[in-house]
Amino acid sequence: MALLFKIDRTLREALFIKRNAEKWKTYQHEPARNPDEQAERFMTLIDDLSYAKTFYPKSKVTRWINSIAASIYQGIYSNRKEKYSRIFQFWKYELPLLFRKYHRIFLFTTVAFCLFVTVGVFSSIHNPEFVRGVLGDGYVDMTEENIANGDPFGVYKDNSPFNMFIRIAVNNIRVSFLTFMGGFSFGFFTIYLMWSNGIMLGCFEYLFFSQGLGMQSVLVIWIHGTIEIGSIIIAGAAGFILANGILFPGTYSRMASFRRGAKDAVKVLICLIPFFITAAFLESYITHLMSQTYDKADNTGLPVWASILILASSLWLMVWYFVIWPLKLSKRGKVQMNDGIIARLNQPHA
Question: Is residue 231 within 8 Å of 275, Cβ to Cβ?
């Protein structure tokens, strides 16, 4: 039975090649007469490639079609007049689809970070001195003094918001880069950085909840914290993508697997830069204003509804771009990424 199936598949593959070989040779050796014909060739090849990858994934003809499509793709995008088309394609399709490929790693880093935060909270509840051991006596004393003076979020007030913005942005990018580099340690340093940041966050939130300022801390701190913490978790995913490429090469050689993992991880890391800059801006300017809402001496901050709106928008941005949109692209099957090729697909046909 298996032999008959193999023979049938071989015959169907031969028929598929016979029907299309001349067309592929034409596409490979004869230039298109105009851009419309070039685009039409590319769409036809993507259809053929989709069919070949479905039924003959290990066949030489699949690699042949892929090489022709890649060549035409390069020709299309090197001649496009739209200056920012490649950037648009990267952010709208390539990066979300790439991230969809690593959703399981992202889920792991998310669960792990939440667990570390829970450990921080749990440890603080059972041993209040644990907070001082993690955050330091100086920071805890300063925060408690600010709370006593009616200015619980005074730490976010700075005479130079711009300097604060630069300092925070650089620090966040540095932390994300170190978290990514932790992948070279097979993920051990990455998990350590996530552990330390998660424990600190848990202790930090406990400090305010224990003083009856839990909801206020959410409305103030998570204005920027939603994007910042989400980006740290994603940076952790980048580190584990790198580690995964080293530890689990699959059918690739270890070096080839490492290169693929490193390339994907760097793309994820680069995409975080605008998110960290946005978080730094929110912390330096918006959180600064919101903190004044709870300052008894200077109640000139933003209204609570503005904080809720910003917080909800930030959460929706992170969930939509890194979870919902990649799932939609993958589920609808209208966009396929194949070794850097992104194209709108029709249904495969023989």
Answer: yes
Q: Each residue of 12-36: pLDDT tens digit?
A: 778 888 888 888 888 888 877 777 6
Query: Could you give the 3-state DSSP secondary structure of residue 310?
Result: helix
pLDDT for res 340: 43
The rounded distance, in Å, linking the Cα atoms of 326 and 329 is 5
Tens of pLDDT, residue by residue over 165-186, are: 888 899 999 999 999 999 999 9
In order of 34, 179, 183, 246, 252, the CA distances from 255 in angstroms are 41, 22, 15, 8, 8
Query: Is residue 342 within a helix (H) or strand (E), and if so which, with residue range?
Result: strand 341-344
Q: Note whether 45 and 27 are within 8 A (CB).
A: yes
pTM: 0.71
Look at residues 341, 190, 201 and name the one whose alpha carbon lies nearest to residue 265: 190
Q: Is the dihedral of CA 198, 200, 205, 209 positive or negative?
A: positive
Tokens of 68: 């022709």
pLDDT band, very low/low/confident/very high, at 331 (cuts 50, 70, 90)? confident
- Collapse the DSSP code of 252 into the 3-class scheme (helix H, G, I; strand E, B; otherwise coil) and give the result: coil
Amino acid in the structure at residue 301: G
CA–CA–CA angle 338, 339, 342 (5° rounding): 50
CA dihedral of residues 100, 316, 109, 90 (deg, nearest 10): 40
Task: Using the structure block, give the residue that is written with the tokens 């097979």.
Answer: 186
Task: Collect all residues with Cβ–Cβ distance below 8 Å to 300 and sequence separation of at least 6.
Answer: 292
- Lowest-confidence pick of 17-21, 105-109, 251-255: 251-255
Token pair recorded at residue 318: 């992170």
CB neighbour list of residue 167: distance below 8 Å, 6 or more residues apart: none
CA distances for 236 relative to 204, 273, 294, angstroms: 20, 14, 33
What would the two tokens of residue 47 be?
Answer: 């259809």
